[in-house]
Amino acid sequence: MLQKHIGIDLGTVNVLVHVQGKGIVMQEPSVVAIAGQHMVAVGHEAFDMLGRNPDSIQVERPLLNGVIAKFDVTEAMLRYFIQQVTGKRPLFKPRVMISTPKGVTSVEEHAVHDAAMQAGAGAAYLIPEPLAAAYGAGLPIGTPTGNMVVDFGGGTTESAVVSMYDIVVWSSVRTGGNRIDEAIANYVRKKYNLLIGEQTAEEIKISIGSALPQEYDTSIEIRGRDQVNGLPRSATLASSEVTEAIEDPMQAIISTIRSTLEKTPPELASDIIDRGVVLTGGGSQLRYLPERLTRHLGVPCYVAENPMACVALGAGQALENYQIMRRSLPEIEV
Prior knowledge:
Keywords: ATP-binding, Cell shape, Cytoplasm, Nucleotide-binding. Forms polymers. Belongs to the FtsA/MreB family. Among the domains are: about 145-175 and about 250-305, ATPase, nucleotide binding domain (Nucleotidyltransferase, domain 5, 2-Layer Sandwich), CATH 3.30.420.40; about 175-245, ATPase, substrate binding domain, subdomain 4 (Actin, Chain A, domain 4), CATH 3.90.640. It is built from twelve helices and 18 strands. Helices cover about 40% and strands about 30% of the residues. With about 325 residues, it is α+β, with helices and mostly antiparallel strands. The relative contact order is 0.16.
């Protein structure tokens, strides 16, 4: 097959690329470094510059809460990722399926579609993230049964019930991994008078972050800048403190999932009690998150097999089965 079929999870924090017949071929941070009018680095290389760049180089995340905040930068980033797969001058332009948050406006959908077309796609389609996540997680979304998925992204958390290749009910909150990182940084600033960057906050979350208090408290040494005298300083942070720090974003996420369950038709709700709730996205890997959600919702929750890749896999599979999926996808008038 000469024309490539590409599924893209265009996330606030990471971009994942799926190619038909090859699987996931790329996973890079959604970060771009720009000097003047020129893009000097994309992905991991640009991410390493975050918070460490001179004034001559701007390091930007072109997506905010799952939608395009900077069109030109997003287009340049998409072009880079598509060319990594197809080469600079492909004989046939690829067909591309890109995930977007369910609650986006038609203007935001048009922006993603136009960016993909200008980045070199021959045809571009959009798929709601929860639908792609459910498909990629291997749920039987084509059957008349209730399949519930919660996608924990960097900018948004979306929960949805899927049946017959479409979303029945859904809820979304613009709280995700980034908001949890911010909560940790704010806690450290208020309690220890210590300023830390977003990378340090993310490292704390990954190292000792937990949705529930752990049986054995662990700690980590953190380094930052003293808020009072401006000098470098270190402090020790316990996992119980991180659990306390992220309580507000956790409550917002739980309320969103509860809202979806409350809107679910009774027949589908009974299916969800039997099957449970599948958690996808990078944020689903937070320690004891399934246990906390199970406790609060009264429904068994478990993490999908490859949670980070579910949306990209689902986008790729939806493109392969486009004729079946097309009625469930947003229509973009060109």
